[in-house]
């Protein structure tokens, strides 16, 4: 009896070394879902560790070394001390911020629209959304060159109404337009995931309690940004 | 008591305490006239006419897709009827948007705002009505107490159990003192025991506050237990609108009989009125009695009988008077009413009662034997009998 209880507690067999009581089989070692998951993911983890994480660490490591291999901070002082590099850094962050903003402005209404569609319509629209990612970068860039170029259809449109077409290529605007085009999917897909988790009954619930449709905020505006993309604020 | 609440029905016979609060329920008289609504090209509501008295608890009962939720959403203002009129207290609100109606709605998912505390959720309707913060707090605390959630105001919905969420949703709907309380399958996400307890609580609360209430459900037990009246719906129309007893005992249509409760359906031929019910021939030789719903059928007309399993008694075959069912003397005998002979095919123990299946000339008849009664053995010859008033008779559809 005592042996049975102990076996149930854990993998330990009869503590006195005697054979377990008849009918009490050796308990199967239970592998938690966490362990199983790790096992399944291990090939992918191995590939990423070898080809992505390790090189990144090497890069960081080398950045603190001279060509000869001596430790140094010279690379960093040079990077931050040179106004050219600093400008490039700021420009990169700026373009990134504009792209994010552009994706949000274009992507959020699209995600809200997708939420109410049938699964079939969502599949087709998602394909459209992902299509820029399926086209090679060079092809995509040339496409934009044609569209935004001085003889492109947009410039033609300006000319047709008697206006002079603005310069649309080789500046930040063109870069942001191209980036938004590619990055939109990365904005819309997570938004769709979040919106799907919102109970669709929340909107009628709020409306039934007196919230007018389309009103932006009923109370303190401080609560709106940090509380996710809730339809009720 | 006001004149309005007098009409509510016997279920609501109020105690002294109820009278004081329910006297306030002179508003919330709902009238639906000829409501039609098509969704996605299919007409889901096909002519609903309905009048509710102030303080009444009405249930829209029907299977999924019968148009009950659609009807509720038109009352709430979330859907616009294709035709017809919605009136509350004599005012046409058909085209009034939901946010300008005074409806308190409880959703199946409860639809609590996840980023607000329980107290904020409850006070939301007051905030929309520009009630001051101090008064909001006070009334939210009152509402929490009303539903038995005192001290839970600072929690978030995700920290509550299903029953507590349900109560929060109820408090949120009631705090605005709505014209009508609309409950859209509010118990279906709860486990069986809690469901029964909460529906009793909701019914008691409704009686206390006296708000006119519509409950939408597909659960006939729920409908029978809490309603003043039940509207049984199928395919967009109301099949029967009456007090629970009548809906259960005198189903108006084939659908109502089969949907509300279990029922034995027997086909026969009408065979003339008797002193205590209408006679009906089943098969060639067997006479049974039932009470006609509506106009009595003429002799020789094809009829259908509905008998609830709990109304069927399973009797041993009387040895002394065998097969005398059709003789004129039958009507004089009160002890053994005519019945349907058959063979016991199965018995099932169900805890509080025993279910007995008898194979007869008219097909299987199921009988529910009360606790403690003698259970006939398998294969035994028996007679299925019932009081004429417990069986209803309609023309065969």
From TrEMBL, chain A:
Q: Where are the transmembrane segments?
A: 38-61, 88-112, 124-148, 168-189
Q: Tell me the leader sequence span.
A: none
Sorted keywords for this record are: Cell membrane, Membrane, Transmembrane, Transmembrane helix, Transport
Q: Where is the ABC transmembrane type-1 domain?
A: 89-233
Q: Where is this region: Disordered?
A: 1-28
Source organism's superkingdom? Bacteria
Q: Where in the cell is it found?
A: Cell membrane
Q: Does the keyword Cell membrane apply?
A: yes
Protein's GO biological process: transmembrane transport
The membrane-topology field of this record reads: Multi-pass membrane protein
Example of a GO cellular component annotation carried by this entry: plasma membrane
Q: Which Gene3D superfamilies match?
A: MetI-like
Q: Which family does it belong to?
A: Belongs to the binding-protein-dependent transport system permease family. CysTW subfamily.
Name-wise, this protein is ABC transmembrane type-1 domain-containing protein
The record lists the organism as: Streptomyces violaceusniger
Automatic annotation (TrEMBL), chain B:
InterPro entries per the UniProt record, alphabetical: AAA+_ATPase (IPR003593), ABC_SmlMolc_Importer (IPR050093), ABC_transporter-like_ATP-bd (IPR003439), Mo/tungstate-bd_C_term_dom (IPR008995), P-loop_NTPase (IPR027417), Transp-assoc_OB_typ2 (IPR013611)
Can you say what this protein is called? ABC-type quaternary amine transporter
Q: Which Pfam family name is an example for this entry?
A: TOBE_2
Q: Which SUPFAM superfamilies does this UniProt record tie to the protein?
A: MOP-like, P-loop containing nucleoside triphosphate hydrolases
**What PROSITE patterns is this protein classified in?**
ABC_TRANSPORTER_2
Which gene holds the coding sequence for this protein? fbpC_2
Give the matching PANTHER family.
SPERMIDINE/PUTRESCINE IMPORT ATP-BINDING PROTEIN POTA (PTHR42781), THIAMINE IMPORT ATP-BINDING PROTEIN THIQ (PTHR42781:SF1)
According to the entry, every stretch annotated as the ABC transporter domain falls at: 30-260
User: Does the record's keyword annotation contain Cell inner membrane?
Assistant: yes
Which UniProt keywords are given for this protein, alphabetically ordered? ATP-binding, Cell inner membrane, Cell membrane, Membrane, Nucleotide-binding, Translocase, Transport
Concerning SMART domains, the annotation shows: AAA
Would the keyword Cell membrane be found if you checked this record's keyword annotation?
yes
Using the UniProt annotation, give all residue ranges assigned to the region (Disordered). 1-24
What Enzyme Commission number does this protein have?
7.6.2.9
- Report a single Gene Ontology molecular function: ATP binding
**One GO location term (cellular component):** ATP-binding cassette (ABC) transporter complex
